[in-house]
Known about the structure:
By secondary structure, the chain is of the alpha/beta class. The protein has helices at 14-19, 39-46, 55-71, 88-96, 106-114, 131-140, 150-163, 201-210, 230-249, 275-286, 299-302, 336-340, 351-354; strands at 24-27, 31-34, 37-38, 50-54, 76-81, 100-103, 122-124, 144-147, 167-174, 196-197, 214-220, 256-258, 292-295, 306-316, 324-327, 346-348, 358-364, 373-381, 388-392, 412-417, 420-425.
Amino acid sequence: MAEPIVFSSPDPTMRELLATHPQLTLDVQCGLMLEGVPLLAIADEMGTPCWVVSAGTLRARAGRLLGAMAQAGLSVSPHFAVKANDHLAVLEILGQAGFGADVVSGGELLRARKAGIPASRIVFSGVGKTDAELRLALAEGIAQVNVESAEELEILSGLAVQTGREMRVLLRVNPDVDAGTHAKITTGVAGNKFGVPWDEALELYRRAAALPGVRAAGYAMHIGSQILSAAPFRAAYARMAELVRATREAGLPVSVVDCGGGLGICYRDEGEGSPDAWAGAIRAELGGLDVRLAIEPGRWIAAPAGVLLSTVVLRKAVTGGAPFIILDAAMNDLLRPSLYDAWHGIVPLSPRDAVAEPEIAAVVGPVCESGDMFAQERSLPRLERGARVAVLDTGAYGAVMSSTYNARPLAAQVLVDGDRWSVIRARQGVEALWAEDIVPERIRSPV
């Protein structure tokens, strides 16, 4: 078993977690509430595991972010990073709130269109766009493709000429700025697979301006995710501003700068990234360039809107050590703790369980992997068999990363909106796991 991550401060109490998650409240009779809905009621009717997302939280955080930009005097084109949560209901809510979509695959592009987001508000990022995906982008007439290499630029130009279309392109630049985040979610330092090296960008932009079928319009960047300080943003945007000025001095027009995303949230007690500080960094470094600005937030909007409901299958005693609290949710549902050693708050749904005496425990899932763990040496109210819990901040990179590993069907999904809730994806049936498997006749067993 991996060594537990040691934090310098004690685990936050349930009261402290609720203080940083205002969308959640603890009712003395109904237990943990998301907006106006008791989560126990959802767990009772839908069973567990079950994803629950708050429409009100999505709207509120989208509005807060756009408000911060407006307050800073910035006019930005906002695109939600679909990779964070691609459910059609989420995309429709955010589209109605004024967001377009930042997509990284043809499937995400079509999902965004299905959710009613106009092609003119879709940007396509990613290092490995296939020819079929680029043809789709051209056919749909999306706003722009963020090109990440010289090779991709040549391919896109050729495809555009073949189809008789033109695509606006931004060069995604790797500014070689350390975002100070987890190594697996940093994207803007030398050695990452993303973007064009900063010192090669101007020459490639010059090439883009001369190619047929593409229209070089500016630069894009994204330095990573879960960024809590404005300092990395300012450092990266300062390099972008320098590049814009150098490009114009070379006689080439620049009309767009895509600032990326990456603003972080408060999972434990680290505080959350400030939209006002982010807007301030954009204004300070890019505000005087006379360019159209774009942003691509994902996690900051969606993560706090979601919880994963689960039930304690059993307590497993450990002689001389902390017990294992085994849930019916697992790493195939929520991968982040196994993949990133991510910390997620775990809160009982029952008002009685919420006030139980705390103990140190390990919270794990039933999947046959030692890495199937949600928490190690975590201080939690004592949880008995049958207790129900909510794993917090799972609205981003939660359901969207789920799998059916160990032949575990995908969990149901529910949307809460005020005091109402609706099923937005039924629990997958077990038979669906093998419904599309094909066994060749030559190896079939005789009946």
